[in-house]
Amino acid sequence: MATNNEVIRVENICKVFDGNIRALDDCSLTITKGEVVAIIGPSGSGKSTFLRCLNLLEQPTSGKVIFDGVDITSEKVNLDLHRRKMGMVFQHFNLFPHMTVKKNITLAPVRLKLKTQAEADKVAMQLLERIGLPDKADTYPAMLSGGQKQRIAIVRALAMEPEVMLFDEPTSALDPEMVGEVLDVMKELAKSGMTMAVVTHEMGFAREVADRVVFMDSGKILEINTPDELFDHPQNPRTQLFLSKVL
Amino acid sequence: MWWSNLFTDASPASFFNFSFLPKYAAFFVQGIEYTLLLAVVSVLLAIIPALLLALMRLSKNRLVKGLAGAYIALFRSTPLLVQLSIIYFGLFGVINIPRYSLFGFVDLSRFVPGVVALALNSSAYVAEIFRAGILAVDSGQMEAARSLGLSKWSGMQLVVLPQAIKNVLPAIANEIVTMVKESSICSMLGMAELMFGAKAVASSTYITLAPYTLAAMIYFCINYPASKAIEAIERRMRRGDKQ
């Protein structure tokens, strides 16, 4: 059943915290190359936990995550090598505060010997041009606005030339006027053909950019469909209830 | 004036009978130097083992974690004087340090055991400082490093530790202040630090109280300004973080 353009296949993952809190209950999903998948659902539904299981920041209690045909939940794989190819953007940016913007972007590629410092610097400047912040290369994160921080966090992940980008509520910690600039970068990224999984509360973004939308509640994936179908004709009663409240 | 005969004909038990000063001032000057040397060297020596202990404490391996935990518990739950005696008579009863004199007044055969004991003791405390400092760095920092493909050790080394160390610098400076006081216990084993100097003066002049008063004043004059300065630096650092 594996097709050539499949990037991530999640098979029946469960996540149980502290022995009894069931954060994920038998979730399966396949993400294909170039696809943008938006994951929506109420708070505490497990959507962030699900996303964090994709690059194993959260170790699933059971089930498999297959990335590029390799089961990365297996103890035998070198997870660090696979994580290089999965960029991640966090709700709270998590830029390294003791490094300049440029150093934030070049740290991993240089440290992992994928690029020399000079090459990495050049790529960093190109990426900063792309998001309109080349003049911030030598400043520290503390001097930036939330929107700027998040755009830089996105290019920091892009500097590793990942095959897939994971976004964990990338606009939830932003002031409303800064949401747009971050979403614009993400839209451009989607247009360029990047494979993306986005946990989001931005229904407009999910509808406009996503190829498929996943609705989760109480740790379960309840509905997967195209945005038009899911938003206009939700099948599951809980999806209907959720959408009636947020739209 | 009320103070005019303070230094001349006060009783031997007077707080301020400093008539020994002209003759014995050198005891105190050398004592201060010895004390500062003991405190600074032992805390500096403690830093690397402490960092190692802190990382061991945070390890997932239960044996490694337990070993570091046991070390820290042992050194924090027994008196320094007892540790010092065991290390001096036990460890350095076996290892022989030559009677070589540093700067003319630091006898290595006593100084080295003293410094080793203080450093071993201090590393248990500094380890807990480091551990708290590492835990205080937001867990998102390590997650970001790992998500970029960096190993746990690289993330620790490049991302978490630089932030943790900056945060704990004031606490480590405070540990030196503590050590300046605690090192007075080394006088029991004949190390010529400040307290030893005071004792020596007291016993050779029969002025029983004032040498100790002077020692107390000197300790205070070193530690109080130092801890105030550290507080000020801490306040400034906290303001810097808020930007």
Task: Report on the architecture of this protein.
The complex is a heterodimer of chains A (247) and B (243). In chain A, strand 4 and strand 5 (70-71) form a beta hairpin. Chain A has 247 residues and is α/β, with parallel strands linked by helices. Chain A has a six-stranded mixed beta sheet, sandwiched between helices. A four-stranded antiparallel beta sheet of chain A has the order 2-1-4-5, with helices on one face. The relative contact order of chain A is 0.17. Chain A has nine helices and ten strands. Chain A has helices at 47-54, 79-83, 101-111, 117-130, 146-158, 176-191, 203-209, 227-232, 237-246; strands at residues 6-17, 21-32, 36-40, 62-67, 70-71, 86-89, 164-168, 195-199, 212-217, 220-225. In chain A, 36% of the residues lie in helices and 26% in strands. The longest helix of chain A is centred in the C-terminal third of the chain and has 16 residues, at 176-191. Chain B is mainly α and 243 residues long. In chain B, 74% of the residues lie in helices and 2% in strands. Chain B is built from eight helices and two strands. Chain B has a two-stranded antiparallel sheet with strand order 1-2. The longest helix of chain B has 37 residues, at 21-57.
Task: Summarize this structure briefly.
The complex is a heterodimer of chains A (about 250) and B (about 240). Chain A has about 250 residues and is α/β, with parallel strands linked by helices.
Descriptive labels:
heterodimer; A: 247 residues; alpha/beta; 6-stranded mixed beta sheet; 4-stranded antiparallel beta sheet; globular; B: 243 residues; mainly alpha; two-stranded antiparallel sheet; 8 helices; 2% strand
Topology:
The complex is a heterodimer of chains A (247) and B (243).
Chain A: E1 6-17, E2 21-32, E3 36-40, H1 47-54, E4 62-67, E5 70-71, H2 79-83, E6 86-89, H3 101-111, H4 117-130, H5 146-158, E7 164-168, H6 176-191, E8 195-199, H7 203-209, E9 212-217, E10 220-225, H8 227-232, H9 237-246
Parallel strand pairs in A: 3-8, 3-9, 6-7, 7-8
Antiparallel strand pairs in A: 1-2, 1-4, 4-5, 9-10
Chain B: H1 21-57, H2 62-76, H3 80-94, E1 101-102, E2 106-107, H4 108-136, H5 139-147, H6 152-182, H7 194-205, H8 210-242
Antiparallel strand pairs in B: 1-2
Helix pairs in contact in B: 1-2, 1-4, 1-6, 1-7, 2-4, 3-4, 4-6, 5-6, 6-8, 7-8
